Structures are given as C-alpha cells and as structure tokens.
Amino acid sequence: MDTCCVPMKSTVHLGRVSTGGFNNGEKEFFGEKIRGSLNSNLRINQLSKSLKLEKKENKIKPGVAYSVITTENDTQTVFVDMPRLERRRANPKDVAAVILGGGEGTKLFPLTSRTATPAVPVGGCYRLIDIPMSNCINSAINKIFVLTQYNSAPLNRHIARTYFGNGVSFGDGFVEVLAATQTPGEAGKKWFQGTADAVRKFIWVFEDAKNKNIENIVVLSGDHLYRMDYMELVQNHIDRNADITLSCAPAEDSRASDFGLVKIDSRGRVVQFAEKPKGFDLKAMQVDTTLVGLSPQDAKKSPYIASMGVYVFKTDVLLKLLKWSYPTSNDFGSEIIPAAIDDYNVQFPEFQFYDPKTPFYTSPRFLPPTKIDNCKIKDAIISHGCFLRDCSVEHSIVGERSRLDCGVELKDTFMMGADYYQTESEIASLLAEGKVPIGIGENTKIRKCIIDKNAKIGKNVSIINKDGVQEADRPEEGFYIRSGIIIILEKATIRDGTVI
C-alpha cells in the first residue's frame, strides 16, 4: 500500500481516492502536489522523521490509505485513516424474480376472452410473457416464479413448452409456475385479490429453506413490452441501500393518468406516489423531469414520472410489508408503494432500456421457411411457415402458418396466424363445400385490424371500417371494434363478401 506526506489546508474535504491513494499515477493527492519520492520505504522514513517517532515503527496496513493533514501554520498534525471500500456487486444468485401473470386483462379484451394477457401473441412468434422472461435470462436471473390465475391454461402451456425440459436452460436455477389455489381457512378460499395479495398467498415460498439466500426480489408484470437489464436496477438498489426501488419513465400529459406517478427529491428518493390520478390530483404530480436527464424541450412534453410496474424489494422488507405492516392491502401500485414511502427508503434510478444485443426467447416451432410468391411487402414482419401468393402486405405483422391468397391487401394489421396447417386437399374440399378455410381468401382488403388465431376470412371481404365506428360489440358476427380498430375473434368465420 503506497503512502505519502501531503501538505493540505485545514479546510480540505476528502473525496474519493483511486487505487493506491494516487490520481492515476500522477504526483498529486486530493489535488495537492506530493512532497517526496514515490518510493514507499523512503516515504515511510520521511513520515517517521516528521512526526519525531522515537521507538515506534510506522507500519502500513494493507488496504488502507493514509494521509497527513496540516493546518496553515503547521502547528497541528491530524491523522486520517481511509479504508478503501470496494463497491458491493449485485449477485444474480441472490436475486429472484416474481412475474405477475394472473390479471383479468380487461384492457385487451376480446383478445383475452380465452387466454391470459401474458399469453397474447406479439411480434409474430412471441407471447407477452416472453418479454419479462427474456429480460430475466439476459440479466442472468435464473430463479423465476410466475403467478397465474385468470385463463391460465394457454399461459401455463406456453411456459412449459418454452422454459421447461428442452427449452431454455437455467443452469442451477428454475422456473416455477405458482397457480392460484385455495387453502384451508376462510381467507384461503378467496382467489388473488390483487398483485400484492398474489405474492402474499405464496409468501411461504420465500421463507422456505432452499430460498434463504435470496436477498432481493424483483416484481414484474407479465404483460409489459420493454427491454431492461434487471441487474442494473438491482445494483442501483444495493448502491443506495434502498428498501424498495421503482423503475420509472417520463410520461406525457395524454398518457400520465394511465400510470402510477411519482415525485422525487434531489437524491432520487420517492416522496410521493399517486396511482392513476385524475384532474387536479394529476396536475399536482407534475415535476421538473430535467432532473432525470431530459432536455428542457423534452421535459416540457413529458412533465410526469410514471412507474413502469417494475419493483425491487429487499426480501425481508417485502415479507414485513405483506405479512405485518399491510396484511389487508391487495395491490402494489395503489396501496403498498404509497404506504411504504414514509417508512422506507424508496428510490427511483435513471436508466436507458435499449440494448440490441439481448435477444427475446420463445418456444421453438421448427417450421419451414415462409413461401412468398410474387408479393409486394413493405415495412412488414412475416413469421415462419407462411404461404403468401400475389398479395400486398404493408406496415403489418403476419403470424406463423398464415395463408394469404391472391389479391389480398393487408395494411396496418396484426395477423396472429394459426396453430396448425390445413393441407391443400383439405382447403380445396372446404372451398368446394362453400366453407371458409383458415387464412384470408382471394381479393380481401383489410385495414387497421387485429386478427386473432385460427380465424377464417373468406373471399372478397372488406374489413376497413369506412364509417369510422369507434366502439362495437358483434361477437355473434365474429368481431369487436375498440378505439376504431377491428378485432376478429379467435376461430371466427367471416363469410365471403362480408363488409365490416
């Protein structure tokens, strides 16, 4: 360990010291010129002489930076021992993730009429649950619990096919599906009453001996679309010695009321939390978002800080909150987090979420390449195993095993695809009988539409909502309209010549 003798003013403040107590190897220490040689033995002798030590030998402790501070008139000598503290690194083995997948999913209805929201297809070949799962894998978090309840069969099946057995390897980790269940006692007969209640019902999992090393728990939503390294969030959580850490993003006026909003102080500590405020309460949550890195122009457009629904808890803090402090609170966003702000250190860190090197994972289908014959495709994603012939696809996503016949025009549309193939002979037989096969028939025009799985759309159909209808419920005819977007139901049949 290198030391030296440095003259300093009595008002000097000690800052961070680099390795060995020197500034990148230069002859400076805390901004002052070093007096003496850089030979450690010579410096020790000089230090001993200056202090007139008679029978003592100055011993240098390893891992400690020593300095001598003198007043301006040099009549007083002060010793300062500075231990070189290493930053505690977050260890993924000490972290578990809890993914909440049991919500009713009313915002995505009718897509969630038969499936849980996290199992809704996205991006052609993925499910929404693949996003937080992939973020966990890319963050090296391999202890994952998925809580399921509502319409859980498709979600459980996808998780089993993708992440169990021959799917993604988790090494010494695991993925466990914790399905909603009833237990003895009056309280045990109820289903999950909210996000916090879902975790509370399985709190015994984190008290189990095999999970005793879990120090921090990352709580995630199963239906959000984003990319994040959760270990950066955990590292920030550890660096600030936070009890609870929220991941947040700037929000505009038009969308702010859809989120939980936070106010922070200059240290990044959350001082106020409001769940989906309206009116005056919404305006009261405006903050200067230049404090979190936005430019003045962007700060004017986005004057709110919105919670992303991604939380990091110290394990003991989470257990205390759910079992003892707020045993009847059912939701993290509207009850637990606002109540915990006064008693716990709740932090908001700053992050950038884009990373092109981290892939998203999903279940392998082993499908053949897509066959495209004389088609016009612009700004589109075409998944595996599709058959496209003499058609036009613009600004759309076409899911797996989709069939588009001659003259089809697809624009601003998400087609989820099919779960199975129909052979050419089966298709010909259905057409001969006047029935509609899976896929889209000849000369059909579709605009601003979501087509659910295994839908059958016939020939000469027009799905363009030319009257601009914003809301409509026509389940008997196989479709809904939400916010002006037509949604064709799963397994629906749209007959030849239909106009929607």
Characteristic terms for this protein:
nine-stranded mixed sheet, 3 domains, 19% helix, 500 residues, alpha/beta, UDP N-Acetylglucosamine Acyltransferase, domain 1, ten-stranded mixed sheet, 12 helices, Spore Coat Polysaccharide Biosynthesis Protein SpsA, Chain A
Radius of gyration equals 31 Å
What is the oligomer described by this structure? single chain
Number of strands: 31
Largest sheet: 10 strands, mixed
The parts where pLDDT drops under 50 for at least 5 residues are: 1-44, 51-71
For the record, the count of structural domains works out to 3
The CATH topology of the largest domain turns out to be Spore Coat Polysaccharide Biosynthesis Protein SpsA, Chain A
Strand content: 25-35%
Provide the CATH architecture of the largest domain: Alpha-Beta Complex
Q: What is the fourth-level CATH superfamily of the largest domain?
A: Spore Coat Polysaccharide Biosynthesis Protein SpsA, Chain A
Overall spatial form: globular
Termini separation: 79 Å
Q: Overall mean pLDDT score?
A: 80
Structural class: alpha/beta
Q: What is the CATH C level class of the largest domain, in words? A: Alpha Beta
Percentage of residues assigned to helices: 10-25%
Distinct helical segment count: 12
